[in-house]
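Meet our chain:
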Amino acid sequence: MRNTKLQILLSVVTFFFFLQGSVPAIAQQERKIGRVERRADRNFIRQKFDKAMAQYETIVERERMPTIKLRFT
């Protein structure tokens, strides 16, 4: 009984430890993507289409990045 409780406690602590490292990295990546998207929108409105399209392409590349790489950075 005691060993089972310790295993459950250890599993929960390990789960939250890994969860803690992954969530902020993903949120940070989403903020960066949002910032680049707003900049691209402003350039599009100002009719700087070449700059805007390059920034939109950057957004697409960043969204394709796997989240596994983001967890450990």
